[in-house]
């Protein structure tokens, strides 16, 4: 249904568009405000293939090869064993394509020894326990540092049947990882050193995984008292 506007309003709108903004003293010319262009879609005929079964990064999955957890508690679970089993199975599943895990991750895991903490060169970060699902049971949060910049973030939970499942996998430059209540926030640098992206993940009971709920940009003041190379900056977070 077409709605006709009163003629007087249409004339005022045309005058305002032609001459600038109006105030209580009448119309004023604000100069050339530029031309508004509609978005131009690129490569309209190109679409990515949908991910195959098990080929969706970040999706929930039971980690194979691990014993069931007694008491349904992550306390006492060896984080390194969980990460090793997860990385190994994910690498085999994606065929080394890097879709599910960085191809270098398995080689990096080889640096870990049989020591409790994996030894001085082990790239797996100490596990952190925090309840993200809201069921009163703590999840295991850890990461594998692939190199000096890129990391594989991993979050695991214990299901009701005692099996350990990965509920979040994310590759990125981890400027910071924060937990608050049932939220997990990942801070990453952007191409603009003045800003940092913040990805907020929350538990989704439907997918039984941590799902992205909000993506924002935050100011990124740099540290002036930390020596860095000329082409690098670090957030004061």
TrEMBL record:
Keywords recorded for this protein, A-Z: Signal
Source species, domain of life: Bacteria
Signal sequence, renumbered to the chain: 1-22
PROSITE patterns attached to this UniProt entry: PROKAR_LIPOPROTEIN
Record protein name field: Lipoprotein
